[in-house]
Structures are given as structure tokens and as C-alpha cells.
Amino acid sequence: MKEHSSIKTDFMIILFGNIDYDGRVQRLLEAIEPLGKQYLLDYKCVNNKNRNHRLFSILAIGKARIVFRHVLFWLKTVTKALAKRPKVVIGCDYYAAFPALFVSRITGAMLIYDAHELIIPETGKHMSIRGLFWYILEKLTIKQADMVIAANLDRAHLMMKHYSLKDLPTVVRNIYQSENGNIKTDEANKLYSDLLRRYPGERLILYQGNVSLSRGITRILDALNYLPEYYRLIIAGDGPDLQELKIIGKSFEQKGRFTVLGRVENRFLIAIARFADVGIITYPFEGLNNIYCSPNKLYEYANAGLPVVATNQPPIKQAIETFRIGELVTTSDSPRQIAQVLMKVAENKKDYQQQLKSFLEANRWEDEALRLRIAMIKVIKRI
Q1: What span, in angstroms and rounded, lies between the C-alpha atoms of 341 and 339?
Q2: DSSP structure string for 5-53
Q3: Of 5, 26, 245, 312, which residue is the least packed, with the fewest Cβ within 10 Å?
């Protein structure tokens, strides 16, 4: 493509996480690939066979306490940066903000900050010492960044106002990169046999994502009490409350109505979603990061042909009401009411699927990637 023909540079992407489970960073790598070499520093890699040969991973962080893991990660990041001398450093999320800033200063590299989360403090709300620490580091980084990326337009405006940024952050939404995420159905059958319909007519409700009770997942589990026996809830994900959720759902599990897959690699998520009838998107109704959420799942479910039942935060509400690809629930809806909504969507799946095509046409990853590359090129040429 012509928009990147004059740019060839070296990128260092810093992620305090695992690239195999981070779809946003995977898409970032794909988007900037035409612009030059990529060097990835991430926290831990499980699946080295999936790595591009130009990427490398920081391993051997070990099981040290979390504070020491961060310090060790920062030190190894500096060592790798001094060896590679990248021209552009990209910090992915607030954990990587400070090491990206530090590396950019000692190497003279351009600094790009991709804010995965929205961590600016809310007026009148208490902020923990931990939250304040990461907020201060983000504030320090974002003020000196040559380019800032936000996950949706609402977040971009909030960040611009709060941090007094001169330019509106570049918006790169969490749109699924459909052409690189698909796997064959038979492979999914082999890997996730517990997921498959055990008999004709079984209805599968799927939740993919972070397993935190603050997200209201127990309301979905409780809704099984008001659904026919042929409805089953599947959890694909990990999180701080996974074990507690298993305990809460034990009676349903014994009846064959509740299945936990645990953490699933990003490349398998679409294949899993194809087996389901309803996809769940649920967030807490407090905190700016939750109110102005930017869920991957909205686009991943859509690519799998899966209608959704979701909480009604503004960005989700706008998408669902505009394209009619599912139904919304509110904070006051009871498990019985949620069950009625789930049944409505599951039993009328084909009607909702007819709306998915227009939703996907209006939300293409190719458009996001192109906008990101053009924005990067303008900044690189300016510096």
C-alpha cells in the first residue's frame, strides 16, 4: 500500500503480558508490519511456535513477587533496547508506560503509548495506592509521548481533556482481525470436546473474557434457574474469581449445565464462539474504564455469527441499538429477566444473524489498521 512506501523503521513493542492472549497487541503488530522490523518484549510466551521470526520474548521472569517481576521486566527491557536501538518504542497499556518512556529517552526513539485501559481518576472517588502509582506513571508517559492511542472515541476525548493533550489520541478500536483468527472446526472439536453440543437442540450461552464477579457473571449463572434444562453456560477465560465461580456453579456443573474451559489462546476464540447460540458481554456499572468500555468480544462474537446479550454501557448500547445484533440488560434486571432476554436471543438466533453482515461491514479491522499506519507515518515524518 502506498501510504507506507516511504517509511521503513525498527519498532520495539513492550507488553507486560503474554502476546498469545492479547488480541489487541497481535493486531497492532500486524498493522505496523509494512512499516519495518518489529521487536516484541513481552512478559511470557507460551507458544513459541506461533512467533514471527522477527519477534522475541522476555522469558524466565519466574515466580517472583509481582513487584520484583515488574522491576526485572523493566531491567530486561532496557538491556534489550540498548542492544537493538529501535527507532520507535510502543508501550502497550499502563504497565508498559514507564519502561517505554525510559527506553525512548536512553535510545532517542520516538515514543508511542497505546492505552488499553482508562485509568484516569474519577472525581470524588477514592483511588488505591496501587492505582495511583500506575496513574502517575501513565501521566508522566503520556505527557511526553509523540503519539497516543485510545481504544474508542469516548476514551480519547476523556484522556485529551484530563491530561491536557494538544492532539486528540488516535482511535484504534478493538475490532477483530477476522482473517487471522480462524481455525478449522475439526481442530476446535479436538481441543474443546466439552464445548460441543451433546445432543440436538442444546442451547449454549458463552462468556469469554476476564472472570471477575464484579462483572456480574453470577447473574448469568443464576439465570439458568429460569431457563429450560437444555441451556448450558460455558466460561472461556481466567481471572481472580474463577475458582469461586466454579464453586458457585457446582450444582449446575453436576447437572451438565455449566462448563469452564479456563484460559484460551486468542487464536481459538472465534472457533469456540461458532458453537454457541448467545455471546455474553458484561461489565460493572461503575468506573470510567467500565462505563466507556471497548470490548473485543463485540467484534469477535460478530465474526463468529453470534448474537449477543450485553450490559448497556454507552459504547455497547450504541452498537447494539444501531445494528440490532443482540439485546441489552440493565443493572436492575433480575436473573429471571435476564433469562427471558437470553431465551429471546437464542431462540431467534437467525433473525439477529441477518444484522451481523452490516455491522461487520461498518466495523472493519482493515480501516482501523490503515488509519493507525497513516497516523504513525505523519508523526514519524514530523519528528
Answers
A1: 5
A2: TT--EEEEEEESS-GGG-HHHHHHHHHHGGGEEEEEEES--S-GGG--T
A3: 5
Q: CA 346, 353, 213, 245 torsion: positive or negative?
A: positive
At 50 the pLDDT is: 46
Give per-residue pLDDT as tens, 49-93: 444 434 555 444 445 456 678 888 898 899 989 999 999 999 999
* In the chain, domain spans: 2-175+364-382, 179-362
Q: Identify the pLDDT of residue 54.
A: 46
Q: For residue 183, give the C-alpha cell.
A: 481455525
The CATH superfamily label for domain 179-362 reads: Glycogen Phosphorylase B; (3.40.50.2000)
Give CA 281 to chain center in angstroms.
12
pTM of the model: 0.86
Cα dihedral 117/123/124/129 (nearest 10)? 40
**Coil, helix or strand for 307?**
coil
Give the CATH architecture of domain 2-175+364-382: 3-Layer(aba) Sandwich (3.40)
141 by Cβ neighbours in 10 Å (0-12 / 13-18 / 19+) ranks as buried
| Bridge partner residues of 232 (DSSP) | 204
User: For residue 253, what is its C-alpha cell?
Assistant: 456443573
Output the pLDDT for position 58: 47
What is the CB neighbour count within 10 angstroms for residue 123? 4
Nine cell digits for residue 362:
461498518
Angle at 345 between CA 343 and CA 348, to 5 degrees: 100
Which residue ranges in the chain fall short of pLDDT 70?
1-7, 44-67, 178-186, 188-189, 194, 383
Strands of 104-186 (E only): list them: 110-114, 147-150, 170-171
- For residue 191, what pLDDT is reported? 75
